[in-house]
Amino acid sequence: MQALVAPTYNRLADVLTDAPWDAPSLCAKWAVRHVVAHVTMPARLTPDLFAAEMAAARGDFGVLSDTVAARDAELPADVLLAQLRSPELHAWQPPGGGAAGALSHAVIHSLDITVALDRPAVAPPEAVTAVLDLITEARGTWFGIDLTGVHLEATDLNWQWSDAEPVGPPVRTDGGSLVAVLSGRTLPDGRGLPRVGRLHST
What we know:
Elements: H1 5-16, H2 32-39, H3 41-44, H4 47-56, H5 61-72, H6 77-84, H7 87-91, H8 98-114, H9 125-137, E1 151-154, E2 160-162, E3 171-173, H10 175-182
Parallel strand pairs: 1-3
Antiparallel strand pairs: 1-2
Helix pairs in contact: 1-8, 2-5, 2-6, 2-8, 8-9, 8-10, 9-10
C-alpha cells in the first residue's frame, strides 16, 4: 500500500500546478490550499515540532490541524508542491495507522481536492479500490457513516459492496466519489451518506 502513496501525491502536485488554490474543497471550511498544507505537514514537522504543536493545541488534533492548515496555507505554492513530491511525505505513516493509514490519508485528501474541482482522481485505481475496501470492511465506522441497507457500485472500477439486506436504489458513481461519500463528505451535487457520528479527522 505504501508504494501507492507517492504516485497519488505526485499526480496531485501535477494537477495543482494549474488549479485554483483558493477554490473550496470537500473539507468544510477549507480551500484547496488548506488541504495541501494539511497533507504536507509530515514534510515540515519533525517529531519535536509536532509535539510542540500538539502541546499548543492542548492535545486536540483537530485544533492542531486547523491551526497548521490556516498558517501554512500561506506558504508559497512552489514550496507546498515540492513537499507533495518529497520522499519524507511519501514514506510517512500516521501513528498506529501504518501503510493503510498513509494510503487512506493520501487518497481521501486528494479526492477532497479533485472531486471539488471536477478533476479526475489522481490516485491509481488500485489505491482507490484499496481504500474502498478498508472503509467498507470497517462498515463506515472510521467516519461515522451508516451503511445499513446500503449498496455501493463504482462505475469506473470492478468494485461493489452491499449490506446484508440492501434497501433502496444502489449508490452508483465513480470510485473516487464513493470514497469521498464514505469519508463523510458531501459531493458538489449534494449527494452523501447518512452519518451517525462525528466526522473523523483524517
